[in-house]
Amino acid sequence: MTGRILVVDDILANLKLLEARLSAEYFDVFTAETGRQALAVMEQERIDLVLLDVIMPGLSGFDVCRRIKASPATMHIPVVMLTALDQPTDKVRGLEAGADDFLTKPVEELALLTRVKNLMRLKMLNDEMELRATPAGALDPLAGPADGGKLLLIEDDAEAAARIVADLGDAYAVTVADDPALVPQMLDEHRFDIMIASLDLRNFDGLRLCSHVRSLPRTRNMPVIVLVTRGDEARLLRGFDIGVNDYLNRPVDRNELLARVRTQLRRKRYADHLRDTIEETVGLAMTDGLTGLNNRRFMDTHLKTQIEQCAAAGTPLSLLIADIDYFKAVNDTWGHDAGDAVLREMAGRLRRDIRTGDLACRLGGEEFVVVMPDTDLETARRIGERLRHEVASTPFEVRPGVPVSITLSVGLSALQPGDSLASLMKRADEALYLAKHEGRNRVVAEAA
Fold first, then answer.
1. Is 366 a catalytic residue?
2. What CATH fold (topology level) applies to the domain 142-285?
């Protein structure tokens, strides 16, 4: 794993030591001795992660972190604070400023590299989603409230669980699991925003639960916070390798607990927003905006795949192209809004009348396509005739109380040996032309 890391420390020896350790792992390392130098570097360079000393002259590490997280351009860059202090109050100050993790000086090399690689991995995933979600980087940073989430607490010590529930208060809905064996079922039946898991369970390995969560598509992106006994660094580092997001040392400090939960929940909601935006973007790219049917781009990809699969399996496939007769007259007489209403209604009737497994698409204008796998030409003819009859027998309402009779012309083709997408479409289009030429409101199949 590579990346660009900014190390900020006012002691030159510390800078050189961290620079040497990270360079040996093939990271590109930038250095700064003051907070203002660090902010200047971040304005000029693309930085993937910041290692930031807390106590510095001028701007403190807390101040620098707060400025990094306040800027939409840098707010999602992970910040690890380096401190000789190991008090919960200092961690809370850092978390409230936006820090992602802490390392206590002197920094142990394995802990450093494990935390850096874990945060870099998360950063790279977010960067990829941001790139796919918006080409111009115009996505809102989503710095909204981070409460109201559903938390799953896995803890078989009743007193410890009660304290954590009390510390979280009414801001979160907390479900306590005191039997780890029931957790997989709970994850199947309920959706949780965050899982908090003890690594000190009496008869169960908490890391195995974390691994299970990361292995399931449903919970793969759910943040996991582990509760560890101070000094159990080896198991914590193993947890980071598995995909644990954060940790709390026992005894759990209430303010640190709340700060870490808020940080993880805010980060999750941002990542969920990115995923939703990507899905919406993909959907828009493959969907006709007016009718909600799949568009020509999706049809081309889908039909090509269907042709290849049916040809390999030796199974039939038929293609139907339907064109609304005299559609221009609808627009000229009633206006384009009426024409749009007819197209939407036509799409709705296609959805209702086609079979499960068939695919309806809008080809463009007033033309629609239905892809029918496992369907021979005679069966396709009956389907086309049923569709044509349903359209002709039930008027379309272009305005409230204004019905208009609409008819369809339909052309059909069936898959033949050696067919391509273009040849199958061409024969269906030729059959549609004959249907129009012979008087419209009819179904014509390609010549056998």
1. yes
2. Rossmann fold (3.40.50)
The bridge status of strand 359-364 relative to strand 367-373 is: antiparallel
CB 68 within 8 A of CB 77: yes
- Give the pTM: 0.61
Q: How far apart are CA 306 and CA 280, in angstroms?
A: 25
Amino acid 366 reads: E
Q: Give the pLDDT score at 137.
A: 43
CATH match of 1-137 with 3.40.50.2300: yes
Percent of the residues in the chain that have a pLDDT greater than 70, as a whole number = 94
Nearest alpha-carbon partner for 338 in 286, 288, 404? 404
Q: What is the mean pLDDT of the chain?
A: 88
Q: From residue 324, how far is each of 321, 369, 381, 387 by CA, in Å?
A: 10, 12, 17, 12
DSSP assignment of 139-167: ---------S-EEEEE-S-HHHHHHHHHH
Q: Which of 155, 256, 366, 446 is catalytic?
A: 366
Superfamily the domain 296-445 falls into: Reverse transcriptase/Diguanylate cyclase domain (3.30.70.270)
Per-residue model confidence (pLDDT) at position 138:
45
Q: Which H or E element spans position 7?
A: strand 4-8
Residue 439, amino acid? G
Helix (H, G, I), strand (E, B), or coil: what is residue 136?
Answer: coil
